């Protein structure tokens, strides 16, 4: 039976309600994709910032710089939206952008260099964490 004022169940004892609420919160916390999405977000931030320590501009690789900057910003935005409102379609967007990071060294012909290793490592981290976040949600 609920009260018309608070919509709370007054027939169940308070300690039983508290235990049920706690168990429900624990179940939600165990299956939360948030830790994986946090790693994807941090990888996206690294992708944008990494142009300075790796030296894309010094090597005159503006195509690599802009590719990584645009992908990093897009993944960061999509990941923030996924954290606020979980949408299965956005998982595919993140996976596609991570796939581009894996293919970009071949398409843009980086050669074997620092930017290639960076894109492959960040792309794999994003792809793996995106898959894990999709399976946990």
UniProtKB/TrEMBL annotation:
<feature type="transmembrane region" description="Helical">
    <location>
        <begin position="89"/>
        <end position="108"/>
    </location>
</feature>
<feature type="domain" description="SPW repeat-containing integral membrane">
    <location>
        <begin position="39"/>
        <end position="129"/>
    </location>
</feature>
<keyword id="KW-1133">Transmembrane helix</keyword>
<feature type="transmembrane region" description="Helical">
    <location>
        <begin position="64"/>
        <end position="84"/>
    </location>
</feature>
<feature type="transmembrane region" description="Helical">
    <location>
        <begin position="34"/>
        <end position="58"/>
    </location>
</feature>
<keyword id="KW-0472">Membrane</keyword>
<protein>
    <recommendedName>
        <fullName>SPW repeat-containing integral membrane domain-containing protein</fullName>
    </recommendedName>
</protein>
<dbReference type="InterPro" id="IPR005530">
    <property type="entry name" value="SPW"/>
</dbReference>
<dbReference type="Pfam" id="PF03779">
    <property type="entry name" value="SPW"/>
</dbReference>
<keyword id="KW-0812">Transmembrane</keyword>
């Amino acid at each position: 039976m609920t009260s018309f004022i608070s919509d709370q169940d007054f027939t169940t004892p308070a300690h039983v309600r508290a235990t049920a609420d706690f168990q429900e919160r624990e179940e939600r916390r165990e299956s939360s994709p948030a830790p994986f999405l946090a790693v994807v977000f941090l990888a996206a931030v690294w992708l944008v910032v990494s142009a300075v320590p790796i030296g894309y501009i010094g090597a005159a690789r503006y195509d690599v710089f802009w590719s990584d900057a645009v992908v990093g910003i897009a993944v960061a935005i999509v990941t923030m939206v996924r954290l606020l409102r979980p949408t299965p379609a956005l998982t595919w967007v993140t996976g596609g952008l991570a796939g581009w990071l894996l293919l970009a060294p071949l398409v843009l012909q980086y050669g074997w260099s620092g930017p290639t290793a960076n894109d492959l490592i960040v792309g794999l981290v994003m792809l793996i964490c995106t898959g894990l976040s999709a399976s946990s949600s």
